Amino acid sequence: MTSISTLPVPGTEFQVVIIDDFMPGPHKLVDYALSNGKAPKDELLYPGLRMPAPAGYLRYALATINLALKKCRIADTLSDGEAYFAMVTRPPAELTTEQSIPHFDRPYSHEYAVVHYLCSPAFGGTSIYRYNPTGQVAVTEATLNRYQQSLDAELAALPVTPGYINGDTRLFSRVAQVPCAFNRAVIYPCALLHSGDIPANFIPDLNPYTGRFTVTAFLR
Questions:
Q1: Which of 45, 89, 123, 198 could share a disulfide with 212, CB 3.0–4.6 Å?
Q2: Could you list the residue range(s) of the whole structural domain that residue 204 is in?
């Protein structure tokens, strides 16, 4: 039976929605990812491999998340999107600058990102961050230029060391955190700055049954 909770994001009007026991038969999703005959692709921005999830997954996710948003008194209703199986596979030392800092998915506060954990809690959850130089927690169309110009200047003056962010740094402070739990879905506006809580000693594991395996979705 699913359970729904929310986590307010300090400094914003937004909240993170958390749904436990998100989907029936979650282990079957891992089986499907291995047996459907499609090859995952290495991504430029995502630090690992992704491939499309089945259409039925997206339909179920939309229905379940819309019910949760309504229960949490969030006015948005979602009708479309994309969902992908995703596995983090890139060693910390091989990350790009963009992969070593928090990111936002899209500058739209009424579109949502979803991380559905199909892995052990040991792989870490998801955190929301504040960009310290400007105080931004969300990057919207109206604030995108301000954020990008400031970030570009900061990184030009002092580049970041490659590695997964997992806590406060010179440029970013963690303001909210959701731990990983198997079959937990974390839903938040795409405009929020966020990152996976991947430990510094992370060792890539290409086995979906034992690695950091999730479904990530973007809903609008």
A1: 123
A2: 3-219
